[in-house]
Amino acid sequence: MNLSSARQYFYQEIQQSDERIDLAKAALYIAQEEYSNLDPQEYLNALDTMAWELQERLPDSRYPLRMVQSINQYLYEDLKFSGNQIDYYDPRNSFFNDVIDRRLGIPITLALVYLEVARRIDFPMVGVGMPGHFLIRPNIPDIEIFVDAFNGGEIIFAQDCEERLSQLYQQPVTLQPEFLAVVSNRQFLARMLTNLKFIYMKQQELEKTLAAVERILLLFPGLTLELRDRGLIYYQLGYYPQAVDDLQNYLAKVPDAQDASVIRRLLSEFGKDG
Q1: Cα angle 50, 51, 52; round to 5
Q2: What does pLDDT average to in each consecutive run of 10 residues of the chain (274 residues)?
Q3: Are strands 154-156 and 135-138 parallel, antiparallel or unpaired?
Q4: Spatial separation of the C-alpha atoms in residues 23 and 25, rounded to whole Å
C-alpha cells in the first residue's frame, strides 16, 4: 500500500457523518502511512477477539461500575495493557496497531482500545477531552464516573479531575464544564494526529509533521493555526508556492493575528506581503 492509498482510505472514512466514522478503522488508516504493509482487518479481528474473550468474563448484572471493573481486569491484568511511562513520546504510542501489538500506549490510544472493546460488548462509552490527559466514561445518563485508560482503568470523579488539572498546571484550576466535554469522532482523530504532529516536530521529521497537519486539515479544513503551520512547514521543506498560498490564506482569515508581522516578513521574501 502506498501513502496516497492510505490517505484516501482515511479521507473516505471521515467523509461520513461523525457518528458513523469508525474510529478504529480511521486510526489504522493513520498508521498505514507509517506501516505500508499494515492490514487493518487483522487488528479489527484482534479487537473482536478481545471482546469475545471479555464477554465470557462479564458479570450477570451489568451495573456500570461492575462492567468497568470487568473490562479493567481483562485489559490490564489479563492482557497487561499499560501506559508507557518510560518513553511517552515514542511515536509508536500513537499508532493503533503498535498499541495493540505492544500493549503500550498513551491516554488517547489506550482509551481507543477500551472504547472499541466496550462498544463490541454493547457497553457504550465516550471520549472525554480533558486538557492534558484524555479520559473516557460510560455513555449513561446521570453516571458521573470517568475512567483513566492510561492508569490501569482507574475510576475517578469530577473532583479528582480538578485535582489532576491543578497538578498538571502547577496552580489551582477550577473545573469548567468544557474540560470534561465529550469529544466527537473527528475531534478524537484530530487529537491523535496533534500528538503525532508535536512528536515529529520535536524530532524535526518535517515530512511526517506535514502528513499529520494535512490530515488534521482534512478533518477540520477551517483550522487557521493548522493552515499557518502547514505553510511554515512547506517553507522549511522548500515548497515555496504552497507555502505562499497557505500563509496568504492565513493572513486573509486572521489579518490581526499576533504573528501577522512575522508572516508578512516571511512573505516579503517572495515579493508577497499578504
Answers
A1: 90
A2: 80 97 98 96 98 93 92 98 96 98 98 98 94 92 90 92 85 85 97 97 97 98 97 96 96 96 91 62
A3: unpaired
A4: 5
